[in-house]
Amino acid sequence: MMLLRNGVFLSFFSFVLGLIIGSFINVLVYRVPKGESIVYPASHCPECKHSLKWYDLIPLLSYIMLHGKCRYCGHKIPVRYPVIELVTGLAFMGVALKYGWSFNLLKYVVFSGLLITVSFIDIFDGVVPDIVVIPGAAIGLIFAIIQGKTMFLDSLYGLLVMGGFFVLIILVTRGRGMGQGDATLGAMIGAFLGLKFSIAALFISVIIGGIGGVIAILFMRKKRSDTMPFGPFLAIAAYIMLLYGFEFLSFYLSFFNF
Ligand SMILES: [Zn+2]
Question: Hey, how many other C-beta atoms are within 10 angstroms of the C-beta on 43?
């Protein structure tokens, strides 16, 4: 019963934390590609420039209560704002339910936030922002250093192998297919997940990227020659490994064990 109550509290706490961080991620997604400061000016409506009050900025709730429109000019608020908040809330809750109150909860909540930021910038602007990903890789290494020598080495190997793999692809394909941002994103994922899990994430990302590509061609009138950002698929795969890494690897290895 105690455990259940703890679980309910932890779920609620992490979901709300995710909504709040998600509304900050919205600021990053909007401003980082434009090279704007993320602290100044304060949030305002891009249409009428009216500065937004605290009650206009409550994650999810403000959007619902305002029926998706600016309070001052009626301009439509892009649906990506509540979507990013909700995705972050759910992602944080997933990490919390998996790891409970632990150092890994902090580590992987930070990692999830970075993945969501990078994915949405890649979706909307077609770039993986190094200004987010390179510090992100360093943060992943620092978390691993705190966790001890074994984790640090695993993190370092993950970073080097994943980054190196994408650099190799870029060299072989002469820059078609993968971009330099995919290499730095791969390195960040390697730093957070370590060698084994990040390689597994790479494997999964190719599969779901392929499925995503087929869906895009069938239902979204994309042509085979259209480029699709690969970053979000890598990010989703990394998140799957975060939650089901051990299950995935033991399932996979069971094929070699009979
Ligand atoms: Zn407005």
Answer: 15
Contact 191, 236 (CB under 8 A): no
CA of 51 to the centre of ligand 1 (A): 9
The kind and range of the H/E element at 26 are: helix 2-31
Calculate how far, in angstroms, residue 72's C-alpha sits from the geometric centre of ligand 1. Answer: 5
Which pLDDT value is given to residue 157?
98
Q: How confident is the model at residue 254 (pLDDT cuts 50, 70, 90)?
A: confident
Does the pTM surpass 0.70? The reply is: yes
Say whether 44 sits in a helix, a strand or coil: strand
- What is the Cα–Cα distance from 201 to 161, expressed in whole angstroms? 13
Q: Of the candidates 112, 124, 119, 131, which has an alpha carbon nearest to the alpha carbon of residue 30?
A: 124
* Ligand 1 geometric centre to CA of 49 (Å): 6
User: pLDDT over 90 for what percent of the chain?
Assistant: 70
Q: Quick one: pLDDT at residue 42?
A: 85
Give 76's strand partners. 69
Distance 57 CA to ligand 1 centre (A): 13
Give me the domains of the chain, ranges plus CATH numbers.
1-101 (no CATH), 102-258 (1.20.120)
Residues 133-149 have a mean pLDDT of 97
CA 134 to centroid of chain Cα atoms? 14
